[in-house]
Specification:
256 residues; 4-stranded mixed β-sheet; two-stranded antiparallel ribbon; 46% helix; globular
């Protein structure tokens, strides 16, 4: 892990408050960048298509606001020692996005600011010991509360790109891009990549080297770590990455 991301699962409990605080500071910076972008979106553009199939920019913005509130639920659960669901149901999650999508950009911006404030306030209420409490993601995965800030950071950074409003993978902070590249490469080196042919990945700017898929690599893919992450995370088709030999890139499974 980079300095920006320390894996709470491998850290002693006494270190978790400082890990969470460091990642919360990253969330604050990332959210400021997002709010600047949203403030510059033209009134008519919020209903235009985002980079996510079937979603407008309004859908992306509504999702970001409701995601912040869903993580408040997990923070409150960690603080109170209760199992509070991230969302009441998948239907409620989808409804919140659909209901919020058509709003004008000034309402979207106000909602993002308010939900971010609620997230920050909920995090500030956690006593040090609560960062080790286990919470449950909507997927069912269980993880320590100290991972919540990084999960929020990833939501903001990835979906900022998905807005298709001028923020691209090249704008990702290097620490974020390196840590997420490692996370997704590790995931695709395991069961999630079992159906993939083996590919060696080389990040030319950070000297990161990974192998995804199964078997012996017959293809090497090189490029900047941000470009590799954009491909691994589904934000790019990888057309700008160098391939040896020059064969097609494999189709990657969707990754969370």
């Amino acid at each position: 892990m980079t300095d920006a991301q320390t894996d709470p699962r491998t850290e002693p409990a006494a270190s978790l408050p400082s890990v969470a605080a460091r990642h919360l500071a990253e969330v604050e910076e990332s959210t400021r960048r997002l709010l600047r972008t949203v403030a510059g979106i033209a009134a008519e553009a919020v209903a235009g298509p985002s980079a996510l199939p079937g979603w407008t920019r309004g859908h992306v913005l509504a999702h970001l606001a409701r995601n912040a509130d869903s993580l408040v639920n997990l923070l409150d659960g960690a603080r109170t020692g209760t199992d509070i669901p991230q969302y009441p149901s998948e239907e409620a999650r989808d409804r919140g996005i659909e209901d919020g999508a058509p709003r004008p950009v000034d309402e979207q911006l106000a909602d993002l600011r308010a939900s971010d404030a609620r997230f920050g306030a909920a995090a500030a209420l956690l006593p040090d010991g609560a960062w080790a409490a286990e919470v449950r993601h909507r997927s069912g995965a269980v993880f320590p509360a100290a991972e919540i800030p990084w999960k929020r950071l990833a939501e903001v950074e990835y979906h900022h790109v998905d807005l298709d409003a001028g923020y691209t993978p090249e704008h990702w902070p290097e620490e974020f891009a390196t840590a997420e590249y490692r996370r997704l490469a590790e995931k695709l080196a395991g069961p999630a990549g079992a159906g993939l042919p083996a590919v060696e990945l080389l990040a030319e700017d950070t000297a990161e080297r990974s192998v995804i898929g199964a078997g012996a690599p017959a293809l090497t893919v090189e490029g900047p770590v941000r470009a590799l992450l954009a491909w691994l995370s589904g934000r790019s088709d990888g057309a700008g990455l160098r391939r040896t030999p020059g064969t097609d890139l494999p189709v990657l499974p969707p990754l969370g």
